[in-house]
Amino acid sequence: MTHDFDLDGDTLREECGVFGVFGHPDAAALTALGLHALQHRGQEAAGIVSYDGERFHSERRMGLVGDHFSSEKVISRLRGTMALGHVRYSTTGETILRNVQPLFAELAAGGIATAHNGNLTNGLTLRRNLIAQGAIYQSTSDTEAILHLVARSQKTRLIERYVDALRNLEGAYALVSLTNKKLIGARDPLGIRPLILGELNGAYILCSETCALDIIGAKFVREVENGEVIVISETGIESHYPFPKQKARPCIFEYIYFSRPDSILGGRSVYDVRKATGKQLALEAPCDADVIVPIPDSGVPAALGYAAALGIPFELGIIRNHYVGRTFIEPTQQIRSLGVKLKHNANRAVVEGKRIVLVDDSVVRGTTSIKIVQMMREAGAKEVHMRIASPPIKFPDYYGIDTPEQKSLLAAGHSLEEMRKFIGVDSLAFVSVDGIYKAAGFEARDNVNPQFTDHCFTGDYPTHLTDLQGENPKQQLSLLAEAG
Fold this sequence. Notes:
Layout: E1 13-14, E2 16-22, H1 27-37, E3 45-51, E4 56-62, H2 65-68, H3 72-77, E5 82-88, E6 103-107, E7 110-120, H4 123-132, H5 143-152, H6 158-166, E8 171-179, E9 183-187, E10 196-200, E11 203-207, H7 211-214, E12 219-223, E13 229-233, E14 236-240, H8 253-258, E15 264-265, E16 268-269, H9 270-284, E17 291-294, H10 300-310, E18 318-320, H11 333-336, E19 344-346, H12 348-351, E20 355-360, H13 367-378, E21 383-388, E22 401-402, H14 416-423, E23 427-430, H15 433-439, H16 455-458, H17 473-480
Parallel strand pairs: 17-20, 20-21, 21-23
Antiparallel strand pairs: 1-22, 2-5, 2-11, 3-4, 3-5, 6-7, 7-8, 8-9, 9-13, 10-11, 10-12, 13-14, 15-16, 18-19
């Protein structure tokens, strides 16, 4: 039976990564390297803006960082000791150059470039209001609203205008902005999206993950706090806390999927949390099997933990082709029906005649899971079981993760048994919500004051969803997904 599935729609994607440098002679080159390390957070576009003491320089491109920012010719045009970079993944609609960040604007006080990781859940409302007041938008990104709000603020000092703009925002944001004198970082009051402060030979860095510090040999200083606005200038670092203090609720998916496993988040190794999740999954849902097989690459740490906890051999029963991108041309249905084999292939020597357990980080639509299970059976697997290192995804995300509408989420409308039959496995189990918290170092989820943003599992959205209250929520969601 041939299925015509949208395999690229059956995964979770982070929308953005940010990286800024202040006070280094090789600022642009360091930024390009940092963006290389953050490439997993966005593969469709990249941009860098620098400042050389007299003027700003901007290079924005469609495609991968290495395709455009590895040449000395491009980097030499990005002069100065201050630079800001961004990698982007657009969830719906056409990715166009005018949406590539950092976005730049000339204000009365001088130029400002801004890069954003996250989603504003009132971005459309702000856009409509600003346009009604005469604002002229140059992009469809919610990030542009921030520039307009800064420009329209009646405050005197730039940092006051910046904070004034932030007070209008709802949702999740990790912002980094570059002016002619400062590098400014801001994290939303709940700290949903990550932002890191680093240091290299007296130069300061703001970025999305610690792995971006590692690639340039920089030192981790600390995480920017939830609700903090950090200002880096020639006089040093100053912090502002313009919002009432709240308990942080970082996004749990940074541990499950988005962050690189070699990053440190919240004082915890992402790799260790994923491995611990696999061990917890083994406690909650053991399986009598011959071999544990990870679905590469993000399922690998959890599979290692699962295998170790049960004393079952861990084997690479699926080999991933790393050289197939999202732009692969599929000209015919016959080629398209090959589906997931373009990216994954069974290692028959490992799975043939064996009872195998596939371990993956999540199930979204379930369509890719079907293909992988079929592949394992065709390779001669005796039994195929599946264990998922996250709870069932039942609710869509509006904070910077690309998720389908709720009706397209497999777990939203199906029981565990229905999902098992749909995917075609002999057994299926997910780690519990409390289990994922235990793996991250907590006893269980605090249902009164949750430690993480986990709405995809629980439906507990931590902020207002203003843009979803409009007359056409489906259209609103489509536009919201353009943001970030």
